[in-house]
Write a structure and sequence with these properties.
Largest sheet: 6 strands, mixed
Shape: globular
Helix content: under 10%
Number of strands: 10
Mean pLDDT: 96
Number of helices: 0
Radius of gyration: 13 Å
Strand order of the largest sheet: 2-10-9-4-5-6
């Protein structure tokens, strides 16, 4: 069973940057089809932020396009989310999980991102 652990969150001022990591265990893990979700404060749902499609290209929500970059390393079994020009609206708990083509994995604990002046 693949398990995932997110890290790299923190508190930054508007305009700042963070790089999140998602480390996976399990021999069946591949980066294709994986992505990031955000659960905003007070919300019960997790919204799509970015994903790596099954054949490699990346997709982003309109809210983060041009500011966030998703990447991954199959050897290290790790997914990254580089976040630049952070805005207050980016605040939330970020989770890594399947976006395309497979059933969801058990959710990790997420990593908190807070953007505030």
């Amino acid at each position: 069973q693949v398990q995932i652990v997110e890290s790299g969150g923190g508190s930054v001022q508007p305009g700042g940057s963070l790089k999140l990591s998602c480390a996976a265990s399990g021999s069946s893990f591949v980066i294709y089809g994986m992505g990031w979700y955000r659960q905003a404060p007070g919300e019960r749902t997790r919204d799509f932020v970015a994903g790596i499609t099954l054949d490699g290209p990346t997709n982003y929500s309109d809210a983060v396009k041009g500011r966030f970059t998703i990447s991954g390393d199959n050897v290290k079994k790790t997914i990254y989310l580089e976040m630049n020009s952070l805005q207050a609206e980016d605040t939330g708990v970020y989770y890594c999980n399947v976006v395309y083509g497979r059933s969801l994995l058990p959710w990790g604990q997420g990593t908190q991102v807070t953007v505030s002046s």
